[in-house]
Amino acid sequence: MIKFLDLQKINAKYNDELKKAASDVIDSGWFLMGKKLNNFENELASYTGAAHAIGVANGLDALRLIIRGYIELGIMKEGDEIIVPANTYIASILAITDNRLKPIFVEPDPLTFNIDIKDLESRITVNTKAIMIVHLYGQVCWNENLKGITTKYNLKVIEDNAQAIGASWKGIKTGNLGDAAGFSFYPGKNLGALGDAGAVTTNDNELAGIIRSLANYGSSKKYVNQFQGLNSRLDEIQAAFLTVKLNHIDQENDYRKKIANYYLESIKNDKIVLPTAPQAEEHVWHLFVIRTKYRDKLKEFLQEKGIETLIHYPIPPHKQECYRAFEELSLPITEEIHNEVLSLPISPVLNMDEVETVVSFINQF
Ligand SMILES: *Cc1c(COP(=O)(O)O)cnc(C)c1O
Description:
GO terms for molecular function: pyridoxal phosphate binding; transaminase activity. Its EC number is 2.6.1.90. The protein has 365 residues and is α/β, with parallel strands linked by helices. The chain is built from 13 helices and 11 strands. It has helices spanning 7-12, 15-28, 35-48, 59-72, 90-98, 117-120, 144-152, 205-214, 236-246, 249-266, 295-304, 332-340, 352-364, and strands at residues 52-56, 81-85, 102-106, 128-134, 156-160, 168-169, 172-173, 180-184, 198-202, 288-291, 341-344. The strands form 3 sheets. A 7-stranded mixed β-sheet has the order 1-9-8-5-4-2-3, with helices on both faces. A two-stranded antiparallel sheet has the order 6-7. It is globular and about 65 Å long. Bound molecules: pyridoxal-5'-phosphate. Pyridoxal-5'-phosphate (PLP) is lined by residues 58-60, 88-89, 91-92, 134, 160, 162-163, 184, 186, 196, 198.
């Protein structure tokens, strides 16, 4: 059986370091807002190049808190619009609607799966305050055109960097391309905690201060509450685990690239469209997503051969029950993508023999 993702194996590689990190925290008797968090935040800031990194409880909170921070700063308000790709994971959209702003869904480019810039400019109105770029599946969503548009219309750039830690554009890491970025360290992400965790990075001092406070009950001084905040903290134990794993992320991302390149070179089947990576070296391949009209048949075929695949994602956000208000939107490319995508196994512990097996069955299909 070739598993889609073997979390046990992924973490077993760092067994000794992780156990040592856990026992340090247990022995210290200090579980929140301590040295481990501080240390991880410094490491993450220096890894991305951003001035500030703030650990929070998860990736959704990271994105929610960025928008909430802009609301507290008076830069955004209820009813304002944020442009977002229609084919993203639902958390991107939830972060917007939870703050009572309006997501403006833009179609993706079906080759890269990232937001289609051609379509985007015509969707900007006087109420548009930001673009949320999503580096979907690990591929950077940024270029000179997009940068030009955000400057021209004075839009904030919020990066949903849940899937792309370590990716870069012209030597600048994701998380340091826009005005603020949300990271997820959900166990299955490229940098995965052993539970929930997330972070915000930004170069904006004021925004960083507000988010830090908002995530801790809206308080920067004990028992003094400046904002109606929430409790969204990153535990010491998770920060300690993440510090261990951050040291290995580049090596793991390189191995993902090796698998992706092998898939790109070796999968040869007319029924299948491979993903396009204009800057393949800068892609961190959180997921390797192919498209085919025969998606369900291929999934079943591979399952019979002992190969597990997943679909990211089966239902687009605007067709979810919780978003009935958006169900009439016309987003044909997004809907087609959701019917055709299939994610092949890719991970730092998949061996090249297994990758070869996947390729040979796909080529047989
Ligand atoms: C995983 C993910 C999130 C949310 O992260 P959590 O830590 O699960 O809250 C947000 N956006 C995208 C694109 C994701 O893949």
